[in-house]
Design goal:
With 629 residues, the protein is mostly helical. Helix content is 69%, strand content 5%. A six-stranded parallel β-sheet has the order 5-4-3-6-7-8, sandwiched between helices. It has a two-stranded antiparallel sheet with strand order 1-2.
Length: 629
């Protein structure tokens, strides 16, 4: 027990010290966790043989992360990604495998060993990439979505790779039994360990049926069992039971996937997608987020702590050179594949630099290859260190992307628009101060919104606060069409660009005559322009706040709260009506001061407003006097 407390204190203290320092320096939390692991492992020697066991435990954080990502994706959105999953992801894995296999063969390795090396190193780090993309608010960008598609494809590809590796063993000669199942001589080496599995010894067709049955069970359970379960837990009135249920769902799915030989992360992601439309998704997110963050942090620490510094110091140039070769080879493939699939500029560089490393699945595949005698033990140890070094370099690649991104932004302020995969009854163009308030109120009332903005910094800032928004120019008709404007009920124009707002309202009114348009106006003249352009409701930026300030003045010069509120409401109603009246006298391009008809009507309406407020006040005073008598 003392040993447990000691190790827990060491790991937690390292994280608490290193991660805030890295975040303050702008290096990101992942680099902080890796640095913490290096400090307590190779540098100070505070860790022992428990690091490897902790790494396997902490990999469950990746499972939780993919479950939470699945909660953010509706099945329709996942179906829309099918071309990227099959094309982009498949091309990356295949080309990276052959490129790294060719490099290994050039260094004198046999073809079957080289193929195993290429397969292991072709997979990227799901944990580091997704964590960093989420942290930097880049998940919804074109490059971020493409990277996620490739990572998901890689998680799926682990299954056939694990099935292929035994065939590469020098002693593994495949034979066929009478029922059609494949028997390997190497199977006898792993027998007798009592591992739980539902597919061991089954023929190929039975394995397929069991696997499909497990997937079908997850889907059906997500649709039909989660609601009764949550209602049952709700009846207990115990907050901790919600957390227990969330953990049970993820752990249970992972266990079932393991029994049928599938990736637990893949199963968790599938369950998340099934529950994406559930009313309990926010409950699940809030319960699992803390566990995900801590487990991922622990995983990164174990990667840093597990570095074999003696082997690294014995031949640093060779190992660092191999890690750089892996990053360069994968980067070249990613750059070519990204361009072929339409990625450009910052999206292309984000896609290339984020996935250029080897990943945590490489540890699993190398260990499995070593057990099967596919890769020699000495070479396997060397490659494990290469994977760890490439993962350590990854945060520096993201820093390089930030540098390149700023340079490209300075050269050209246009950004690659996001791929919009959502629709809603309310579309909001602009997520500045004005649009934020509108969006918060509408979403808090239970209505779905689709938010668009052309300002990268504003979009990324909102994403850090959990506000989902899409990068793109809302004035572009194709972007509005992708956001589902043809089916929307309300369109809110909240841009801080008076001319752009008028043009957008005019275009949308012509294209969608039945759509209700609410527009932000800078001043009275802007109101008149929007009125003529076809806006249904027009909101002046400072009008409501100015009326409220005037009400506070009235409350502090003698009126009661009720009287001040009535005066403010009367002023509000009259001013809105007056604007409609004055809009008929307004002449585009002519200043109001040079429009006699406008000035005369404005004076008449102002006198009518004063009379209305005065009469209201007189009625209140009479009622008060009669009540006193």
């Amino acid at each position: 027990m003392e040993e447990f407390f000691y190790q827990a204190t060491v790991y937690l203290a390292a994280a608490v010290i290193a991660v805030p320092l890295a975040a303050r320096l702008g290096l990101g939390s992942v680099l902080g966790y890796l640095a913490a692991g290096i400090a307590i492992g190779p540098v100070l020697g505070l860790t022992g043989t428990e690091t490897e066991d902790l790494r396997h435990f902490a990999e469950f954080g990746v499972v939780m992360m993919l479950f939470l990502i699945g909660l953010e994706l509706e099945p329709r959105a996942l179906w829309a990604m099918r071309h990227k999953l099959l094309g982009l992801g498949g091309a990356q894995i295949s080309l990276s495998t052959f490129a790294l296999m060719g490099a290994a063969m050039a260094m004198g390795q046999p073809w079957h060993v080289s193929l195993a090396i290429g397969l292991a190193l072709s997979l990227s780090s799901t944990a580091i990439v997704l964590q960093t993309l989420s942290e930097k608010g880049l998940m919804r960008t074109g490059g971020g979505r493409s990277a996620f598609s490739v990572l998901l494809t890689q998680d799926i590809a682990v299954i056939p790779i694990l099935a292929l590796l035994p065939l590469l063993g020098s002693y593994a000669i495949p034979q066929f039994s009478s029922d059609g199942s494949i028997i390997l001589e190497s199977d006898s080496h792993g027998a007798g360990h009592g591992s739980l599995s539902l597919v061991d010894g089954l023929p190929g067709w039975a394995v397929t049926l069991v696997t499909l049955g497990a997937i079908a069970f997850i889907i059906l359970a997500g649709i039909y069992l989660t609601r009764p379960l949550f209602r049952f837990i709700h009846a207990s009135n115990l907050r901790e039971m919600y957390t227990a249920l969330a953990l049970m769902i993820v752990v249970g799915i992972s266990f079932l996937m393991t029994l049928v030989g599938l990736s637990p992360a893949l199963g968790a992601f599938l369950a998340g997608v099934v529950l994406a439309n559930s009313e309990f998704r926010h409950e699940l997110e809030s319960d699992l987020n803390p566990f995900k963050g801590l487990l991922l942090g622990l995983f990164f620490i174990t990667v840093g702590a597990g570095i074999n510094y003696r082997q690294l110091l014995a031949d640093p140039a060779d190992l660092i050179g191999l890690a750089a070769l892996v990053i360069f080879a994968k980067g070249a493939v990613l750059f070519a594949v990204g361009r072929a699939f339409g990625l450009r500029r910052r999206g292309l560089w984000l896609f290339t630099l984020s996935l250029a490393q080897a990943g945590e699945f490489g540890f699993v595949l190398l260990a499995f290859s070593r057990q099967l005698n596919v890769i020699p033990a000495a070479l396997s140890e060397k490659l494990l260190l290469v994977i760890a070094l490439s993962m350590l370099i990854t945060p520096l690649l993201f820093i390089l992307y930030d540098f390149l991104s700023k340079r490209m932004a300075d050269a050209r302020q246009e950004h690659e628009p996001d791929e919009i995969d959502e629709e809603g009854p309310v579309i909001i163009a602009g997520i500045g101060r004005f649009g934020q308030i509108v969006n918060r109120l509408v979403q808090a009332s239970g209505f779905k919104t689709v938010v668009l903005d052309h300002d990268m910094e504003a979009v990324q800032l909102m994403r850090r606060f959990g506000v989902k928004s899409f990068l793109g120019d809302p004035t572009r008709p194709e972007l509005l069409k992708a956001a589902g404007i043809a089916k929307a009920k309300v369109f809110v124009v909240a841009l801080d660009d008076p001319e752009g707002v008028v043009k957008m309202v005019s275009h949308v009114r012509r294209a969608y005559p039945d759509l209700h348009i609410i527009a932000r106006a800078k001043d009275r003249n802007h109101v008149y322009e929007l009125y003529q352009a076809g806006a249904n409701d027009i909101v002046r930026e400072l009008f409501d706040s100015s009326v409220r300030a005037g009400r506070y003045v009235l409350e502090n010069v003698g009126l009661t709260e009720y009287e001040a509120a009535q005066a403010a409401q009367t002023f509000y109603n009259h001013d809105r009506q007056n604007l409609r009246d004055l809009a008929e006298h307004w002449i585009p391009g002519t200043p109001a001061s040079q429009n006699p008809a406008y000035i005369e009507r404005a004076r008449e309406l102002e006198k009518a407003l004063e009379s209305a407020i005065f009469e209201m006040a007189e009625r209140k005073r009479k009622k008060s006097s009669e009540a006193a008598e």
